[in-house]
Amino acid sequence: MGDYIFSLDIGTRNVVGILAEMEDDTYKVIDYEIVEHPDRAMYDGQIHDIEKVSKVVNMVKESLEERNQIILEYVSIAAAGRALKTQKVFVENEIDSTKAIDKSMINSLELHGIQMAQKELENTCNDLESKYYCVGYTIMNYYLDEGPISNLKGHKGNRIGAEVLATFLPHIVVDSLYTVIHNVGLEVTSLTLEPIAAINIAIPPKFRLLNLALVDVGAGTSDIAITQGGTITSYAMVSFAGDKITEALSNAFLLDFVAAEKVKIGLNSKEKHRFNDIVGIEYELTTDEIISRVDEVINELSAKVADKIVEYNGRPTSAVFCIGGGSQVPRFRECLAERLQIPKERVVVRGTETLENLKFLCEELKGPEYITPLGIGYTSHKDREQDFLKVSVNGKPIRLFNSKELSVSDALILIGFNARRLIAKKGKAITIEVNGKQKVISGDYGEPAKIRVNGKTASLDTKLKDDDSITIQEAIPGNDVVARLNEIVNDCEKILFNNKEVNLIKSITVNGETTNRDYVLGDMDKINIERIKNIRELLEINNTKYDENRIFVNNVLVNEDYILKKNDIVEIRSNEVEKEIINSTNVMEINVNGEVVKLECGDKKPIFVEIFNHINFDIKKPNGILALKLNGERANYTDILKNGDVVEIYWR
User: What is the CATH number of domain 585-652?
Assistant: First the structure.
């Protein structure tokens, strides 16, 4: 594409695309294309229907490409002043007094100022949920060692300072613009604010010593920029513009919006107007007769603009330059002058024919409505050294306006990356009912997203530098749960009965029916488990007769009515066995948790569980998962002990 400058003005009424080039100080327009929105896809300067606006932008792009036999890849755009926020700050940096001030030092100072402005805006903004994007800034004054100076470059000193006027828009406004541009296969290389673009081309720096106002009356918004003392001192916006006049004409004469718009456009160029209303009545009226019917709305527009100028300037400006299609409506300029109490000669319309250093290599664009479209491309060239970070996300290059300390999250917002794709979804869970109580069995956890910057592990907060490469590996969802009935059984209370682990389950049904323990549970299954309550039921379930046997629980003699508890150790001993245990005198030494424990075992071979009778370790009060080790290996309750064994018992 060479050095061509492609700019788009995505307005409320139409989209203007301009192809230009800069030759020395002259801005040369090579070609342009203007396409109206087929219906109202934009209101008050904001995109409401992204798909419809994208189609119109694509028509503009393709027309310019076809006529000029080029492929357009990059574009400069501007955002309207709707929801505009401005913040003025003073910033200072200490510098090395032995070194001449260079551009990098000035850039650092300006960036510091923008970041400070954004921080102050977010601290004072009532809408805490809004995130603001810096779309442009103006350096009102530079300072060297506390004294004002017009240009810092090349000087030396101890401190440099700047008064920075930064302009911000909510992310939603900027994001919708970027989405449209991405939809048509373009990359944004320059983003500014419409009043900044307009003033850069309409009011040269030599005029800015005067206290002037530039008013851009568009379709949905009236944007304002004010100059004084050689700089731009403030920006403002009124959400009342040309569409209000069109709507007033529509109501006054019973016209549809398109017909009313045609009447409004003709008011500046014709004295007599002929049109039919929606029921077929024909009108033939003079401009004055038509204006008299909407004079109230014109007065309201001029009053709102004038009040905003006074609010931001502190007093009326010396003169007002009007641009935008709405500024051509008769009586607007006179009303504005009256409201500001300045001579009407000082409120003038500034059209393209008044611009300096502008040349058309095609048919000329005439009128004040084309100042902003021309200014967008002009500003992009003027600020071509404006800091942009060029980074890539999964190989796709993007540019970020370097208005603050940018992070990975800023890049993902810009490309419209869905944040949900960063979070691993758990697999599908099921809810079951066990003895009347609901229990949720969760699916597996997935793998979270992996973010890397230049190959190194990063996060959404990782700060970005120019040419950083961001890679995002999206989160992997977890597997759905597959739970079987035996897993519920295994979760039930257990005891040790005659050296064997036993569940305290008398019977179990699923949805009222007995089923196999491998049954795969479904959502909302109802499981009923009847518990073994006492020794009597335990013996009946296990077909064990005890007659003259003796029942011991945790080495204590009990009867058959003993209520069983989790982890009880139950033994059925005959009288003879009990006598042998009592009369036994043989002793075995075991190392338990670093201490020697002596077991009187007689002729019987002791098992692991018997250790609990000789140590102070209460297994009835769980404090985690019980860990049992014998000679460094996992142990079972029924493992046979030998003299000199090393035992470890602990909660984990």
Answer: 3.10.20.30
**What one-letter code names the amino acid at 23?**
E
Residue 192's Cβ-side half-sphere holds a number of Cα atoms within 13 Å equal to: 31
Place of tokens 């300029």: 333
What DSSP line would sit under 61-108, residue for residue? Answer: HHHHHHHHT----EEEEEE-STT-EEEEEEEEEE--TTS---HHHHHH
Is 546 strand, coil or helix? coil
**Is the CATH code 3.10.20.30 the one for domain 483-583?**
yes
What is the CATH code of the structural domain delimited by 209-222+241-350? 3.30.420.40
- Contact predicate 478/424, CB 8 Å: yes
d(CA 596, CA 259) in angstroms, rounded, equals 103
Closest by CA to 567, choosing from 621, 607, 489, is 621
Tell me the pairing of strands 469-473 and 587-592. unpaired
CB contact set of 220 (below 8 Å; sequence gap of 6+): 12, 42, 43, 44, 45, 46, 80, 82, 239, 241, 242, 243
CATH code, residues 390-473: 3.10.20.30
Instruction: Give the residue with greater pLDDT, 317 vs 587.
Output: 317
**CB of 268 closer than 8 Å to CB of 330:** yes
Same fold, 390-473 and 585-652: yes
Bridge-based pairing of strands 187-193 and 74-79 is parallel
Look at residue 316 in the predicted model and tell me its pLDDT.
94
Q: Where are the domains of the chain?
A: 209-222+241-350, 390-473, 483-583, 585-652
Question: Which residues are within 8 A (CB) of 137 and not within 5 positions of it... i.e. 6 or more apart?
Answer: 110, 113, 114, 117, 164, 165, 166, 167, 403
Query: Which residue matches tokens 């060692």?
Result: 145
Tokens 């788009």 appear where?
Answer: 8
Query: In sequence order, what are the residues at sequence separation of 6 or more whose Cβ sits closer than 8 angstroms to the Cβ of residue 157?
Result: 95, 97, 101, 144, 145
Higher-pLDDT residue of 110, 254 = 254
Contact 249, 260 (CB under 8 A): yes
Query: 136-181, pLDDT tens digit by residue?
Result: 677 888 999 989 888 898 998 888 999 988 877 777 777 788 889 9
Q: Which residues pair with 383 in a beta bridge?
A: none
3-state percent helix, strand, coil for the chain, nearest multiple of 5: 30, 35, 35
- Rounded Cα distance between 8 and 380, Å, is 11
